[in-house]
């Protein structure tokens, strides 16, 4: 009878742990309900000039770098085709609809060594700071097949286009 009791207790603890994880994720998603839907790339008539195959790592609030944004399509780490051009950025994340971030929303691009749960070699991550609704966020990408400098320069094209339009 002791073995059955221990197995039942372990099963009950597993169910409680899974329920708590589910509740925690739902709570995190709820904190980001104010974020507007991203523009579907199908609603944009222009297409990217360059596309890089990267790893999408995370999107965080720029003032809270340990606060992962849990909003689709940017909630989970995945492969991404990052398109860039003077009009903005296209994010085609595996398993999600392709979205477009206009150059007017882009703030900065740079290099980083860490984010949330990922530490890489020096300047191994590329971050893009942009405005999502009322929040300033940083999206992190890891380049595997392309030199990170090439990806950063491609994103800078969208940033410089926005600067020229404002001048």
TrEMBL record:
Top-rank lineage group of the source organism: Bacteria
Entries under InterPro entries matching the protein: PH_bac
Organism: Pontimonas salivibrio
Spans traversing the lipid bilayer: 6-25
Name of the protein in its database record: PH domain-containing protein
Alphabetical keyword list: Membrane, Transmembrane, Transmembrane helix
Domain PH as annotated: residue spans: 52-145
């Amino acid at each position: 009878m002791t073995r059955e009791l221990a197995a039942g207790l372990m099963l009950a603890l597993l169910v409680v742990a899974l329920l708590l994880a589910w509740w925690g994720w739902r709570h995190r998603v709820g904190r980001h309900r104010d974020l507007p839907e991203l523009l579907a790339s199908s609603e944009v008539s222009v297409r990217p000039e360059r596309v890089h195959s990267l790893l999408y790592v995370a999107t965080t609030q720029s003032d809270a770098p340990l606060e992962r944004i849990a909003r689709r399509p940017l909630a989970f780490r995945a492969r991404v085709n990052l398109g860039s051009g003077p009009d903005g950025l296209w994010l085609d994340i595996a398993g999600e609809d392709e979205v477009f971030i206009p150059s007017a929303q882009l703030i900065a691009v740079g290099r980083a060594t860490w984010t949330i749960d990922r530490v890489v070699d020096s300047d191994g991550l590329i971050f893009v700071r942009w405005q999502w609704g009322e929040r300033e966020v940083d999206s992190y990408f890891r380049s595997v097949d392309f030199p990170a400098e090439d990806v950063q320069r491609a994103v800078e094209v969208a940033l410089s286009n926005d600067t020229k339009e404002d001048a």
